Amino acid sequence: MKSTGLNYDAKLSGSEMKKYRLKKSILRILYKEGSCSAPELSKKLGVSMPTALLFLNDLIDERQVVSLGTGQSTGGRKPSLYGLFDKTNFVISCDMGRYAAKMAIFNSRNEQLTSLITIDTHIDDPELVDKLYEAAHSLMLDYKINPDKVIGFGVDMPGLVDANTGINYTIKETKNQPVRELLREKFDMLVYVDNDARMQAYGEYIFGKARDTRNAVIINWSWGLGLGMILDGRLYGGTTGFAGEFSHIQMEEGGELCICGKRGCLETAASSIAILRLAREGIREGKVSQLTRQFDKDPSQMTPEHVIAAARSGDEFSISVLSKTGMMFGKGLSYLIQLLNPEIIVLGGPVAKANQFILTPIQQSLNRYCLEQILQNTTIVTSEIDEQSGLLGTTAMLYDQIFSENHKTE
What we know:
There is one protein chain. The protein has 410 residues and is an alpha/beta fold. It folds into three domains: 14-84, Winged helix-like DNA-binding domain superfamily/Winged helix DNA-binding domain (Arc Repressor Mutant, subunit A), CATH 1.10.10.10; 90-202 and 389-402, 2-Layer Sandwich (Nucleotidyltransferase, domain 5), CATH 3.30.420.40; 211-382, ATPase, nucleotide binding domain (Nucleotidyltransferase, domain 5, 2-Layer Sandwich), CATH 3.30.420. Helix content is 41%, strand content 18%. The strands form four sheets. A five-stranded mixed sheet has the order 6-5-4-7-10, sandwiched between helices. Strands 13-12-11-14-15 form a five-stranded mixed sheet. A hairpin with a 4-residue loop joins strand 4 and strand 5. Helix 2 packs across helix 3 (49-61). The model is unreliable at 1-5 (pLDDT under 50).
C-alpha cells in the first residue's frame, strides 16, 4: 500500500513508515500553525530543505496540502507558504447540552462550512444516535457536501464520559451507554466522544483565552459547573477521564439536596440552580424587586437570564442574589487555585455573562479564602468563544485524531 498523507498500514516497510510519519508531522504542524514555509517546516522537522520540499510536493499531489502564496520577507526572497487543502477531509462536530444539541460541519482550517443547527435531544433520549445521524445527513444534503469528503464525527456531552472507550456512564439505559460504538455503526467513520466540559476546555486552549498557557482551568457555569483542566500543557482527564467533577464537592454540611443524591454540593450553592432558588425564595417573601412584580404569580417562568438582566438594570435584590452565588462559587474556586496553581481561569456559560455582578464577589471570596502568594499569579477572565468552545474543541480533537500516526481513513 502506498504511504499517503492520511492512511496508515501496519505492513509499511521501515522506510515507508518513516516517510509516512514525516508526512503526518507536516499535516499536524500545518493544522496547528495554519501556514508554514518550507524553511520553517525543515527546522521544525529536523530535516533538510530539499527533503521538506519533497514531502510537501507529495502531499500537494495527494491533495492534502496547497500553496498559499508568499509570506513576509525576513531579509531575502519572500518565502512560499503552505497550508492544508480545505476542500476535503471535513468533520462534523456536535455539542450537546442538557436539553438540546447543536451541530455544524468544519474543514481542516477550522472554518465552519454550514450554519449551526439545533437538535431536540438529550443524553437519555432513546433516539439520540438516530437523531444525530439524521441531522448530520440533513446538514450534508442541505449544503451539498459530498459525504465521501467527511471523515470524522465528534460529539461532546454531559456526564461521566470515558474518552478512551466512548462510553457515557451517566446515561440511564446501559445499552445506550456505548455512544461511540453506536455512532460508529451508523456513520462508518472515525467517531470521537468526550465530556462537554473537557472539550470546552480544549477549545479554549486551542482557540481561546487559554491559548499559549501551560496550566489553565476552564469552567462552564450553567445548571452545573463543568470543569476542564489543562495541566502542564495537556488536557487532563485523570485515570478514567472523569476528573473535574467540580459541581459535586461538598460546600455545606446538610445543605440542599443535589441531583447526585448528596447534600450541600457546590452545584446547589453556586450554579443557575442556586440563582433561581434564591430568587424564588425572595419572591415568596415579597422582596422589593422587579422580579417580584414580573414573576409573583408564576416564579417557575423565571430564568437565570431574567435575574442577570434585572441586576444590570440596577435591581438591588437581583444584585444580592448574584453576589451570594458568586461568593459561594469563589469559595469553591479557591480550592482549585490552591491545589492546581493555574495561570488562568476562563469562565464560560450563561452565569459568566453577568460579568462584574458575579466577578466582583468571586474576587472578594478569593481574597478571603486563598493564599495571596498563589492567588496573585492567577488571572480570572470570561470566555470570548463561549458559545463555540465545545464545537471548536471537538473539531480540534477530531483533527488531532485524524493527523495522528495510527489513524486510518479507510
